[in-house]
Amino acid sequence: MRNMYVVASELARGHSKVKAQVCASETHSPNKKSEYGQIIKATRAALACAVAAALGFFSPLAMADNQASYADAQTHVLDDSTPPMTYSGVEDGAALYVSGVATVGWQPTKVTGTGLVIETSGGGADDPNGGKYVSNAISLDHYAILDLTNAQITTTGIYTQGITAADGSTLMLTDSTLNIGGNYGVMTLYTGSAATLNNTTVEAANSSSAQVQQGSTLNVLDGSKITLAQGQINVVAGTTAADAGSTLNLSDSSVSSTGTKDTIQGSNKADLNLTNATITHTNASGAAVQANNATTLDITGGNITSAGTGVYILASDARIDGATINADGDGIFITSKKKSSWYEDINALTVSNANITSKTVALNVDGSTTINDPIKLTNSTFTAPTAIKLGSKAAIQAEKTILTGNIVQSDMSSSSLSLSQESTLTGRVDAMFTTLSLDDTSLWNMTDPSTVGNLTNDGGITLGNASGSTGT
């Protein structure tokens, strides 16, 4: 059927601009695929707005909420004189809804605004398809564009979410705040959508998370701060290796969480690019950053602090340059266990110009783990009771690197550790099946009796209260 979407941003006030602009758009049931293969979400409140407009009246007295809906392929400019946009209905409505218009393709609708207040406290009615309806402060569909500055976005009530963006939509928030009191998320980006937060503050209670799915991108930039309770930033593609990956770009900003979930998690060919970021994980369970199933993780500069694991790598490729990682659990943990069979095991690790500190193990190679290429440690420090733990076969090349702590091997694989270019190891070595080699510029300060499978020493070995033995 046909539905009449009403532009309601200027309603119920004596303003010289248009009070209600009506445009046509097709209506489909929620989540039903259209002929264009897009996910259509009908906004029930828009139909009510159209009826009100047709009857010739529209005011706050006619409807309890002040919803705004734009779906006309036009550009709309709003300012702080716009009344607060609100939705408190029990179904899946939104305080602000923006959608493109279907033609041969989709024509985008663009809304820009300064000083807007957008709030929802709705949702909670039974969904005939199961579960409960969830309301949103902002909902974007079909290549919608929303650019807000100094916006205040608030959700209260259990069945609420801050933002949903679908089908190639774009969101930009600058100098804005999101206060998320509901349980259903900070935001969900899917089907190739993008959101950019510039100097924006997010505070989320309960288990609310930011979900970046199905080829979407989240950019958190320029002093933005995200504070999560039990939630996380979760970046994931689809369910098969053919699905497009999703991306997180976190730069000069901070993310913190107190829950058991990893603070930042990327899965299934995700791209995690963390530059000069501060990431804090205060729970002993989980990790500050986790990369799963063919994810690419790039950490450049910044500080990672975790009461659990610092960086967790599962069948993924991680490059760490110039970062400081301080963890109560493992500083860096790399494994192949529980990887998805849909994705190639691309385990790889390069660490440069970094400082890794742990109360347990600085670098832990798990058992039953595949690492095809050498792990390269350059101009870095690893400090922990156990500097390196080898649970699977691995070749580790340390250049200009200081290892303070023991080297422990927990399996019978033939691993190797080479120290070159003025590298130093201070600690005990308990690695019967490992080859240890030192070039003529490197040093091993042996602190306790040690065992190594094969020792090639062109450098120096100093003995404290120590003695040593080699297998060959």
In total, how many domains does the architecture comprise? 1
Question: Which architecture name does CATH use?
Answer: 3 Solenoid
Structural class based on helices, strands and sheet pairing: mainly beta
Q: What is the number of E strands? A: 51
Helix content: under 10%
Summarize the main sheet.
45 strands, parallel
From the 3D structure, determine the CATH topology. Answer: Pectate Lyase C-like
The proportion of residues in beta strands is over 45%
Q: What does this protein structure show overall?
A:
This protein is mainly β and 472 residues long. The protein has a single domain, classed as Pectate Lyase C-like (3 Solenoid). Helix content is 2%, strand content 51%. The protein contains one helix and 51 strands. The protein has a 45-stranded parallel sheet that branches. The longest helix has 11 residues, at 44-54. The protein is elongated and about 80 Å long. Residues 1-63 have low confidence and may be disordered. This is Fibronectin-binding autotransporter adhesin ShdA. InterPro entries: Autotransporter_pectin_lyase_C (IPR012332), Pectin_lyase_fold/virulence (IPR011050).
